[in-house]
From TrEMBL:
<keyword id="KW-0805">Transcription regulation</keyword>
<dbReference type="GO" id="GO:0003677">
    <property type="term" value="F:DNA binding"/>
</dbReference>
<dbReference type="InterPro" id="IPR014757">
    <property type="entry name" value="Tscrpt_reg_IclR_C"/>
</dbReference>
<dbReference type="InterPro" id="IPR029016">
    <property type="entry name" value="GAF-like_dom_sf"/>
</dbReference>
<dbReference type="GO" id="GO:0045892">
    <property type="term" value="P:negative regulation of DNA-templated transcription"/>
</dbReference>
<keyword id="KW-0238">DNA-binding</keyword>
<dbReference type="InterPro" id="IPR050707">
    <property type="entry name" value="HTH_MetabolicPath_Reg"/>
</dbReference>
<dbReference type="InterPro" id="IPR036388">
    <property type="entry name" value="WH-like_DNA-bd_sf"/>
</dbReference>
<dbReference type="InterPro" id="IPR036390">
    <property type="entry name" value="WH_DNA-bd_sf"/>
</dbReference>
<feature type="domain" description="HTH iclR-type">
    <location>
        <begin position="8"/>
        <end position="69"/>
    </location>
</feature>
<protein>
    <submittedName>
        <fullName>Helix-turn-helix domain-containing protein</fullName>
    </submittedName>
</protein>
<dbReference type="Pfam" id="PF01614">
    <property type="entry name" value="IclR_C"/>
</dbReference>
<dbReference type="GO" id="GO:0003700">
    <property type="term" value="F:DNA-binding transcription factor activity"/>
</dbReference>
<feature type="domain" description="IclR-ED">
    <location>
        <begin position="70"/>
        <end position="249"/>
    </location>
</feature>
<keyword id="KW-0804">Transcription</keyword>
<dbReference type="InterPro" id="IPR005471">
    <property type="entry name" value="Tscrpt_reg_IclR_N"/>
</dbReference>
<dbReference type="Pfam" id="PF09339">
    <property type="entry name" value="HTH_IclR"/>
</dbReference>
Length: 261
């Protein structure tokens, strides 16, 4: 039976608060969280007090709130409990040529891609990416890489109720998505450069663990930089191989996408 919308209202409110904090680039006050989530200020203060105690939310010196360090513990579960998150920035720095690009590590949650690690570059981007942020998978390079690991019928089923609009309000097209996934499988990497989503160009490759794909890693740059996706893919594949090695993969060549649908 479907759960009643009246069940566990505090849990629902806590989820909305964490989602709101994850979507913001700056810390947020209790008053702003109350307004943004449509929750009474007193309830927000009580819920955030518990979230602070558990480390899920942190408090700045001025009293504003941000995601806490325990969020990283949850993210580690998405990548098989490995130390990929702790080593992510160091491994990015080992790949010569990635220094001028933002690099992200993402996992698939339903029809969204969720960023679990972000190594920023000095290049300003139209959209500030940070751990905890979720975007429609079909609109991002890492999301396309992760969806390409699924059979087409599964991709259709995931999106049968209609995915959310992309940040730039592009309309979703299933045929366009399946074509993009087929191209990704054939060439061994995914890219959203052709869509121009948020004026960002993302090139992404799967990271494999012992049970298969556990995440996708991708480079992100401003679309007007005129990046060469094939060249970027070479660098991202090198990084994917290093991250897959950390995850203990040995039998399958990491940094490649499956050849079948």
């Amino acid at each position: 039976m479907p759960a009643s919308t009246g069940r566990s209202p505090a849990v629902r409110r806590a989820t909305r608060i964490l989602t709101e904090l994850a979507s913001r680039t700056d810390a947020c006050s209790v008053a702003d969280l109350a307004r943004l989530t449509g929750t009474p200020k007193s309830s927000v203060a009580d819920i955030c007090g518990v979230l602070i105690e558990t480390g899920m939310v942190g408090r700045e010196l001025d009293g504003r709130l941000r995601l806490g360090g325990r969020i990283g513990d949850l993210a580690r579960g998405f990548v098989g409990g490995t130390d990929i998150l702790e080593r992510f920035e160091a491994e990015c720095d080992r790949i010569h040529g990635l220094g001028d690009m933002t690099v992200v590590l993402a996992v698939l949650i339903d029809t969204d891609v969720a960023y679990v690690a972000v190594r920023r570059s000095g290049e300003p981007l139209p959209l500030t990416l940070k751990p905890g942020m979720r975007l429609p998978a079909w609109s991002t390079g890492t999301g396309l890489a992760l969806l390409s690991d699924l059979p087409d019928d599964t991709v259709r089923d995931l999106h049968q109720h209609g995915p959310p609009l992309s940040p730039s309000e592009r309309s979703f097209d299933m045929d366009e998505l399946l074509t993009a996934l087929s191209v990704a499988r054939d060439r061994g990497y995914a890219s959203n450069a052709d869509t121009g989503e948020m004026a960002l160009a993302g090139t992404a490759v799967l990271v494999h663990g012992s049970q298969g794909a556990i995440a996708a890693v991708g480079s992100v740059s401003a679309l007007d930089r005129g990046r060469d996706s094939d060249r970027d893919a070479v660098l991202v594949k090198q990084l994917a191989r290093r991250l897959s090695a950390l995850a203990g993969i040995r039998r399958r060549t990491p940094g490649t996408l499956p050849s079948g649908a």
